[in-house]
């Protein structure tokens, strides 16, 4: 009994302790949670001074007048013509994506909730941070994501071109409701162009984000609605895009830039299949007229102009603007956004790359004219973190709205970890890369998406080289899968 009483009392004391403990925890939480929300120790990359990269402290980047660099023995020096129309030298390049236009899957760290909770694209990131903090964060990113070393590495891998996406905000003149950081990215573009010039690489600058968003995807700057041609401000935004193209065309026709910027992209991935093929085609005609009005006509008068197929398929552009001066068509060939392609087995996917993509490039070159592939990768699943948007799931494992898992056991758990890839899988990636190159070189050439990513190896050229499925010198590669298997890439079998 005594034991009983004693135990009752200590039990009471234990409850008291527990209550005091709970009260202390609540007080501690009350203090800590607001601190976390205020984030006085913001986990951005600038947290320690020595990590802050050098930023441009001036507004003038003086173009060098030396265009004699030759990137490799296969490619003409910058001051010699590059025959885009039917030369034997093909464009072999990478995209410098996730640099001057943010894309969550390329740099997931910039979309870490610690930086700006709720950000899903550049628009929301800038809105949440506010102009000052957004400019600081972006400038640190511009200064560190691409450096002179990037160009040295690309040259050493045998590449001869880079494609650089920019947003209209790089050229200023924003409306009051547009939160983008204006102008700063243009300086970094110019600095990048000087590095390209130094190593003899040609640069295709492309408008990737138009006012209102031409596709409603995050990489246009703003995900959500298409308010370009489509929508209440759509007609106005489509018109407003033209002066930006005029500015680019004028700039790149200047003798200081003409050699290093011989091609420019007028607009990335307008969603013509939603907006309407005729409307987008009519806009491209206007855009091309704007560009040629600024540059003049004929070789030596400004850059080639590139149009994107708008996901209509290359055949839809057969005969489009026939006879135009230096107009090229761009298609982006991907497996993982198409459930039918993704559900094929690897043998079928390789065959598809050789035969279908090869035939597409061949036929379009005949029926339209010069045709390039401005984006492709070796990914055969959509598991890359944030690939479908921040907080959006994956088709591969069935977590994407409306999708069905690739197979009963498909998970994304190890798909982004190259150290877990089997020898067989790496051989497949090697073959898939080589098959695509052969197919796309039936046209004017290709640009891999992307030169690097923070954590998605199937989308990173540098990771592909490090892990062995992309060759050290892309000009000097073993016979491709298509060649070995006797699969024609010119549409003849
Ligand atoms: C501007 O800054 C760049 C990079 O820091 C530097 O290379 C260049 O010489 C500077 N130009 C002028 C005019 O100060
Ligand atoms: C090169 O291509 C252009 C445009 O497609 C064509 O008009 C021309 O005849 C071609 N030149 C040669 C030498 O094949
Ligand atoms: C800025 O944009 C407006 C339309 O939004 C246009 O009327 C004006 O000409 C543009 N200004 C410059 C300097 O491009
Ligand atoms: C097209 O514009 C309308 C009207 O603004 C809008 O409701 C719709 O969502 C837009 N379509 C797309 C695909 O964004
Ligand atoms: C791959 O798919 C093709 C076409 O469906 C089929 O003919 C072939 O047998 C499959 N190969 C393997 C190894 O499953
Ligand atoms: C699922 O996993 C099990 C066990 O690892 C395996 O036996 C089965 O073949 C897999 N099924 C599919 C559809 O891949
Ligand atoms: C929500 C959103 O816009 N998601 C897009 C982000 O960009 C990827 C491609 O890089 C698209 O696949 C997503 O649909």
UniProtKB/TrEMBL annotation:
Its EC number is 3.2.1.58. Keywords: Cell membrane, Cell wall biogenesis/degradation, Glycoprotein, Glycosidase, Hydrolase, Membrane, Signal-anchor, Transmembrane, Transmembrane helix. Residues 146-379 form the Glycoside hydrolase family domain. One of its GO terms (cellular component) is cell surface. Its main location: membrane. The keyword Transmembrane helix applies. The keyword Calcium does not apply. It comes from the Eukaryota. GO terms for molecular function: glucan exo-1,3-beta-glucosidase activity. It catalyses: Successive hydrolysis of beta-D-glucose units from the non-reducing ends of (1->3)-beta-D-glucans, releasing alpha-glucose. Signal peptide: none annotated. GO terms for biological process: cell wall organization; glucan catabolic process. It is found in: Cell membrane. It is a single-pass type II membrane protein. The chain crosses the membrane at residues 15-38. It holds the Pfam family Cellulase. PANTHER family: GLUCAN 1,3-BETA-GLUCOSIDASE 2 (PTHR31297:SF34), GLUCAN ENDO-1,6-BETA-GLUCOSIDASE B (PTHR31297). Belongs to the glycosyl hydrolase 5 (cellulase A) family. Glucosidase involved in the degradation of cellulosic biomass. Active on lichenan. This is glucan 1,3-beta-glucosidase.
């Amino acid at each position: 009994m005594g034991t009983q009483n004693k135990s009752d009392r200590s039990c009471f004391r234990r409850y008291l302790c527990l209550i005091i403990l709970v009260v202390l925890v609540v007080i501690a939480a009350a203090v800590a949670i607001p601190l976390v929300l205020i984030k006085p120790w913001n986990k951005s990359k600038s947290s320690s001074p020595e990590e802050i990269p050098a930023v441009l402290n001036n507004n003038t980047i003086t173009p060098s007048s030396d265009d004699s660099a030759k990137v490799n023995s296969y490619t003409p020096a910058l001051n010699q013509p590059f025959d885009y129309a039917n030369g034997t030298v093909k464009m072999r390049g990478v995209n410098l994506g996730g640099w001057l236009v943010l894309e969550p899957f390329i740099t997931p760290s910039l979309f870490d909730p610690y930086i700006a909770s709720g950000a899903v694209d550049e628009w929301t990131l800038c809105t949440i941070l506010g102009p000052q903090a957004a400019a600081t964060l972006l400038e640190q990113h511009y200064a560190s994501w691409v450096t002179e070393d990037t160009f040295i590495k690309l040259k050493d891998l045998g590449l001869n071109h880079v494609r650089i996406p920019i947003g209209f905000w790089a050229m200023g003149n924003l409306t009051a409701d547009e939160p983008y950081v204006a102008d700063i990215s243009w300086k970094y573009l110019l600095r990048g162009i000087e590095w390209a010039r130094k190593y003899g690489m040609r640069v295709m600058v492309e408008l990737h984000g138009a006012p209102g968003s031409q596709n409603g995807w995050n990489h246009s700057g703003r995900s959500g609605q298409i308010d370009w041609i489509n929508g209440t401000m759509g007609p106005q935004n489509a018109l407003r895009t033209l002066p930006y193209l005029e500015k680019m065309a004028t700039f790149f026709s200047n003798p200081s830039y003409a050699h290093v910027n011989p091609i420019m992209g007028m607009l990335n991935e307008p969603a013509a299949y939603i907006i309407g093929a005729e409307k987008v085609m009519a806009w491209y005609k206007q855009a091309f007229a704007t560009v040629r009005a600024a540059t003049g006509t004929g070789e030596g008068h400004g850059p080639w102009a590139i149009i994107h197929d708008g996901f209509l398929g290359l055949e839809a552009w057969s005969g489009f603007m026939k006879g135009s001066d230096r107009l090229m068509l761009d298609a982006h060939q991907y497996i993982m956004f198409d459930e039918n392609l993704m559900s094929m087995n690897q043998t079928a996917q390789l065959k598809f790359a050789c035969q279908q993509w090869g035939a597409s490039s061949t036929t379009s070159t005949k029926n339209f004219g010069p045709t390039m592939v401005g984006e492709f990768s070796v990914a055969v699943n959509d598991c890359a973190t944030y690939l479908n948007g921040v907080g959006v799931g994956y088709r591969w494992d069935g977590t994407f709205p409306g999708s069905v898992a690739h197979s009963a056991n498909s998970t994304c758990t190890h798909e982004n970890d190259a150290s877990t890839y089997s020898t067989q899988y790496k051989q497949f990636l090697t073959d898939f890369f080589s098959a695509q190159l052969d197919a796309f070189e039936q046209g004017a050439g290709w640009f891999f998406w992307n030169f690097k990513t923070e954590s998605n190896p199937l989308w990173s050229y540098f990771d592909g080289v490090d892990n062995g499925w992309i060759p050290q010198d892309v000009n000097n590669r073993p016979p491709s899968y298509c060649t070995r298997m006797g699969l024609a890439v010119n549409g003849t079998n």
